[in-house]
Protein backbone atom coordinates (compact mmCIF):
# COMPACT_ATOMS: atom_id res chain seq x y z
CA UNK A 1 0.00 0.00 0.00
CA UNK A 2 2.99 2.33 0.46
CA UNK A 3 3.10 5.49 2.54
CA UNK A 4 -0.18 6.75 1.09
CA UNK A 5 -1.95 3.67 2.50
CA UNK A 6 -3.87 3.27 -0.75
CA UNK A 7 -5.84 0.03 -0.93
CA UNK A 8 -4.45 -1.00 -4.29
CA UNK A 9 -6.56 -4.16 -4.48
CA UNK A 10 -9.81 -2.23 -4.13
CA UNK A 11 -8.54 0.46 -6.50
CA UNK A 12 -7.72 -2.05 -9.25
CA UNK A 13 -11.05 -3.78 -8.82
CA UNK A 14 -12.90 -0.46 -9.11
CA UNK A 15 -10.95 0.43 -12.25
CA UNK A 16 -11.78 -2.90 -13.90
CA UNK A 17 -15.42 -2.71 -12.82
CA UNK A 18 -15.75 0.72 -14.42
CA UNK A 19 -13.66 0.13 -17.54
CA UNK A 20 -12.83 -3.38 -18.69
CA UNK A 21 -10.52 -1.94 -21.38
CA UNK A 22 -8.46 0.09 -18.91
CA UNK A 23 -4.67 0.12 -18.97
CA UNK A 24 -4.52 1.71 -15.50
CA UNK A 25 -5.19 -1.38 -13.38
CA UNK A 26 -1.74 -1.39 -11.81
CA UNK A 27 -0.51 -2.37 -8.35
CA UNK A 28 2.84 -0.80 -7.48
CA UNK A 29 5.16 -2.84 -5.26
CA UNK A 30 8.56 -1.17 -5.58
CA UNK A 31 9.03 2.12 -3.72
CA UNK A 32 11.77 4.55 -4.80
CA UNK A 33 12.65 5.21 -1.15
CA UNK A 34 14.06 1.67 -0.97
CA UNK A 35 17.08 2.87 -2.97
CA UNK A 36 18.05 5.68 -0.59
CA UNK A 37 19.97 3.26 1.64
CA UNK A 38 22.76 1.68 -0.40
CA UNK A 39 23.30 -0.97 2.30
CA UNK A 40 19.70 -2.18 2.03
CA UNK A 41 19.81 -5.81 0.86
CA UNK A 42 16.03 -6.21 0.90
CA UNK A 43 15.03 -3.98 -2.01
CA UNK A 44 11.81 -5.24 -3.59
CA UNK A 45 12.43 -7.39 -6.67
CA UNK A 46 8.87 -6.88 -7.91
CA UNK A 47 8.13 -3.53 -9.52
CA UNK A 48 4.44 -3.80 -10.35
CA UNK A 49 1.50 -5.99 -11.34
CA UNK A 50 -0.66 -4.87 -14.26
CA UNK A 51 -4.08 -6.42 -14.90
CA UNK A 52 -5.75 -6.45 -18.30
CA UNK A 53 -9.16 -7.74 -19.36
CA UNK A 54 -8.91 -9.08 -22.88
CA UNK A 55 -11.54 -11.26 -24.57
CA UNK A 56 -13.40 -11.33 -21.24
CA UNK A 57 -10.46 -12.98 -19.47
CA UNK A 58 -8.15 -11.47 -16.87
CA UNK A 59 -4.50 -11.35 -17.88
CA UNK A 60 -1.68 -10.33 -15.57
CA UNK A 61 1.74 -8.93 -16.41
CA UNK A 62 4.33 -8.96 -13.62
CA UNK A 63 7.32 -6.63 -13.93
CA UNK A 64 10.41 -7.67 -11.99
CA UNK A 65 13.50 -5.57 -11.28
CA UNK A 66 15.43 -8.81 -10.85
CA UNK A 67 14.58 -12.47 -10.42
CA UNK A 68 16.45 -15.55 -9.23
CA UNK A 69 15.47 -18.09 -11.88
CA UNK A 70 16.19 -21.12 -9.67
CA UNK A 71 14.61 -20.28 -6.31
CA UNK A 72 12.65 -17.05 -6.64
CA UNK A 73 10.94 -17.44 -9.98
CA UNK A 74 9.24 -20.73 -9.08
CA UNK A 75 7.44 -19.26 -6.10
CA UNK A 76 6.91 -15.86 -7.73
CA UNK A 77 5.07 -17.18 -10.78
CA UNK A 78 2.84 -19.35 -8.61
CA UNK A 79 2.15 -16.52 -6.13
CA UNK A 80 1.37 -13.88 -8.74
CA UNK A 81 -0.82 -16.17 -10.85
CA UNK A 82 -2.64 -16.96 -7.58
CA UNK A 83 -3.29 -13.21 -7.17
CA UNK A 84 -4.47 -13.13 -10.77
CA UNK A 85 -6.98 -15.90 -10.12
CA UNK A 86 -8.13 -14.25 -6.89
CA UNK A 87 -8.92 -11.03 -8.77
CA UNK A 88 -10.54 -12.86 -11.68
CA UNK A 89 -12.90 -14.71 -9.33
CA UNK A 90 -13.78 -11.47 -7.56
CA UNK A 91 -14.71 -9.59 -10.73
CA UNK A 92 -16.45 -12.64 -12.18
CA UNK A 93 -14.43 -13.53 -15.29
CA UNK A 94 -12.14 -16.36 -16.36
CA UNK A 95 -8.39 -16.46 -15.86
CA UNK A 96 -6.41 -15.44 -18.94
CA UNK A 97 -2.70 -15.56 -19.81
CA UNK A 98 0.04 -14.73 -17.32
CA UNK A 99 3.22 -12.87 -18.37
CA UNK A 100 6.42 -12.61 -16.30
CA UNK A 101 8.99 -9.94 -17.23
CA UNK A 102 12.37 -9.63 -15.50
CA UNK A 103 15.02 -6.99 -16.13
CA UNK A 104 17.72 -9.25 -14.66
CA UNK A 105 17.15 -13.00 -14.61
CA UNK A 106 20.02 -14.59 -12.73
CA UNK A 107 21.31 -17.82 -11.23
CA UNK A 108 23.58 -17.83 -8.18
CA UNK A 109 26.76 -19.90 -8.25
CA UNK A 110 25.69 -21.93 -5.21
CA UNK A 111 22.76 -23.25 -7.25
CA UNK A 112 24.66 -24.16 -10.43
CA UNK A 113 24.89 -27.88 -9.72
CA UNK A 114 21.26 -28.23 -8.62
CA UNK A 115 20.04 -26.30 -11.64
CA UNK A 116 22.11 -28.46 -13.98
CA UNK A 117 20.70 -31.63 -12.42
CA UNK A 118 17.16 -30.40 -12.97
CA UNK A 119 17.77 -29.24 -16.55
CA UNK A 120 19.40 -32.59 -17.39
CA UNK A 121 16.63 -34.66 -15.83
CA UNK A 122 15.08 -36.56 -18.72
CA UNK A 123 12.28 -37.87 -16.49
CA UNK A 124 10.36 -34.61 -16.86
CA UNK A 125 8.15 -34.75 -19.96
CA UNK A 126 7.27 -31.25 -21.18
CA UNK A 127 6.04 -32.33 -24.60
CA UNK A 128 2.57 -31.19 -25.74
CA UNK A 129 1.28 -34.73 -25.27
CA UNK A 130 2.41 -34.90 -21.61
CA UNK A 131 -0.48 -35.14 -19.13
CA UNK A 132 -1.27 -31.90 -17.34
CA UNK A 133 -1.40 -31.64 -13.56
CA UNK A 134 -4.58 -29.66 -13.01
CA UNK A 135 -5.03 -27.39 -10.03
CA UNK A 136 -8.59 -27.00 -8.73
CA UNK A 137 -10.45 -23.77 -9.36
CA UNK A 138 -10.76 -21.15 -6.66
CA UNK A 139 -14.35 -20.49 -5.52
CA UNK A 140 -16.16 -17.75 -7.42
CA UNK A 141 -16.82 -14.37 -5.83
CA UNK A 142 -15.02 -12.49 -3.07
CA UNK A 143 -12.61 -14.89 -1.35
CA UNK A 144 -11.20 -12.37 1.14
CA UNK A 145 -13.43 -13.46 4.06
CA UNK A 146 -12.18 -17.01 3.57
CA UNK A 147 -8.59 -15.77 3.38
CA UNK A 148 -9.00 -13.87 6.65
CA UNK A 149 -10.13 -17.08 8.37
CA UNK A 150 -7.26 -18.96 6.74
CA UNK A 151 -4.76 -16.31 7.91
CA UNK A 152 -5.87 -16.89 11.50
CA UNK A 153 -5.49 -20.65 11.11
CA UNK A 154 -2.06 -20.15 9.54
CA UNK A 155 -0.94 -17.95 12.45
CA UNK A 156 -1.90 -20.60 15.00
CA UNK A 157 -0.25 -23.39 13.03
CA UNK A 158 2.91 -21.35 12.43
CA UNK A 159 3.22 -20.76 16.18
CA UNK A 160 2.32 -24.39 16.89
CA UNK A 161 -0.47 -23.22 19.20
CA UNK A 162 -2.50 -26.33 18.37
CA UNK A 163 -2.78 -28.85 15.53
CA UNK A 164 -5.52 -28.35 12.98
CA UNK A 165 -8.81 -29.94 13.92
CA UNK A 166 -11.91 -30.58 11.83
CA UNK A 167 -13.89 -29.25 14.80
CA UNK A 168 -12.21 -25.83 14.58
CA UNK A 169 -14.91 -23.24 13.70
CA UNK A 170 -12.55 -21.33 11.41
CA UNK A 171 -11.77 -24.52 9.53
CA UNK A 172 -15.40 -25.60 9.30
CA UNK A 173 -16.47 -22.23 7.91
CA UNK A 174 -14.17 -22.53 4.90
CA UNK A 175 -15.18 -23.84 1.46
CA UNK A 176 -13.54 -27.14 0.56
CA UNK A 177 -10.97 -25.41 -1.65
CA UNK A 178 -9.59 -23.39 1.28
CA UNK A 179 -9.91 -26.31 3.69
CA UNK A 180 -7.47 -28.14 1.46
CA UNK A 181 -4.98 -25.27 1.83
CA UNK A 182 -5.41 -25.37 5.61
CA UNK A 183 -4.66 -29.10 5.59
CA UNK A 184 -1.44 -28.45 3.67
CA UNK A 185 -0.47 -25.90 6.31
CA UNK A 186 -1.15 -28.50 9.00
CA UNK A 187 1.12 -30.94 7.19
CA UNK A 188 3.88 -28.33 7.11
CA UNK A 189 3.40 -27.58 10.82
CA UNK A 190 3.89 -31.28 11.59
CA UNK A 191 7.10 -31.31 9.54
CA UNK A 192 8.55 -28.14 11.08
CA UNK A 193 7.76 -29.10 14.67
CA UNK A 194 8.40 -32.83 14.14
CA UNK A 195 4.93 -33.54 15.44
CA UNK A 196 2.49 -36.35 14.76
CA UNK A 197 0.49 -36.08 11.56
CA UNK A 198 -3.30 -35.90 11.76
CA UNK A 199 -3.75 -38.81 9.38
CA UNK A 200 -7.55 -38.79 9.38
CA UNK A 201 -7.56 -35.13 8.38
CA UNK A 202 -4.80 -35.32 5.80
CA UNK A 203 -6.38 -38.41 4.27
CA UNK A 204 -9.06 -36.02 2.97
CA UNK A 205 -6.52 -34.19 0.82
CA UNK A 206 -7.14 -34.19 -2.92
CA UNK A 207 -4.82 -36.54 -4.87
CA UNK A 208 -2.79 -33.66 -6.34
CA UNK A 209 -1.85 -32.39 -2.89
CA UNK A 210 -1.28 -35.85 -1.48
CA UNK A 211 1.15 -36.58 -4.28
CA UNK A 212 2.97 -33.29 -3.69
CA UNK A 213 3.44 -34.10 0.01
CA UNK A 214 4.69 -37.58 -0.83
CA UNK A 215 7.27 -36.22 -3.23
CA UNK A 216 8.45 -33.45 -0.91
CA UNK A 217 8.57 -35.47 2.32
CA UNK A 218 8.40 -39.18 1.41
CA UNK A 219 9.47 -40.30 4.89
CA UNK A 220 6.58 -38.48 6.50
CA UNK A 221 3.71 -38.80 4.05
CA UNK A 222 4.22 -41.88 1.89
CA UNK A 223 1.32 -43.62 3.64
CA UNK A 224 -1.09 -40.96 2.41
CA UNK A 225 -0.87 -42.09 -1.21
CA UNK A 226 0.22 -45.73 -1.47
CA UNK A 227 -1.07 -45.88 -5.04
CA UNK A 228 0.99 -42.94 -6.31
CA UNK A 229 3.04 -43.98 -9.33
CA UNK A 230 6.83 -44.05 -9.03
CA UNK A 231 6.99 -41.96 -12.21
CA UNK A 232 7.47 -38.25 -11.64
CA UNK A 233 4.44 -36.00 -12.10
CA UNK A 234 4.17 -34.03 -15.34
CA UNK A 235 6.01 -30.74 -15.57
CA UNK A 236 3.06 -28.63 -16.64
CA UNK A 237 0.91 -27.18 -13.85
CA UNK A 238 -2.32 -25.67 -15.09
CA UNK A 239 -5.08 -23.89 -13.25
CA UNK A 240 -8.49 -25.27 -14.15
CA UNK A 241 -11.57 -23.21 -14.88
CA UNK A 242 -14.74 -24.03 -13.05
Helix content: 25-40%
**Count of β-strands:** 8
Query: Could you say how many structural domains there are in total?
Result: 2
Overall 3D geometry?
globular
What amount of the residues lies in strands? 15-25%
From the coordinates shown, what is the CATH architecture of the largest domain? Answer: 2-Layer Sandwich
pLDDT averaged residue by residue = 87
CATH class of the largest domain, named Alpha Beta
CATH superfamily of the largest domain: Thymidylate synthase/dCMP hydroxymethylase domain
How widely separated are the two ends? 31 Å
Order of helices and strands: HEEEEHEEHEHHHHHHE
Most strands sheet: 4 strands, mixed
User: Order of strands side by side in the largest beta sheet?
Assistant: 1-2-3-5
How many H/I helices? Answer: 9
Task: Output the CATH topology of the largest domain.
Answer: Thymidylate Synthase, Chain A
Spans where pLDDT lies below 50 across 5 or more residues: 226-242
Class by alpha and beta content: alpha/beta
Q: Taking Cα atoms only, what radius of gyration do you get, to the nearest Å?
A: 20 Å
Amino acid sequence: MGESRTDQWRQVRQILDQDRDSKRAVMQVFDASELTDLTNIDVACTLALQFFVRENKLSLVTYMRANDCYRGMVSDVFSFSFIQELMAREIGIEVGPYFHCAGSLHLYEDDFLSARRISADGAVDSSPSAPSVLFPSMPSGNNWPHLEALFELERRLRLNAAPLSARDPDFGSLPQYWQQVAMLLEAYRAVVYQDAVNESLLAELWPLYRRALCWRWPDRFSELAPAVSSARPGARLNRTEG
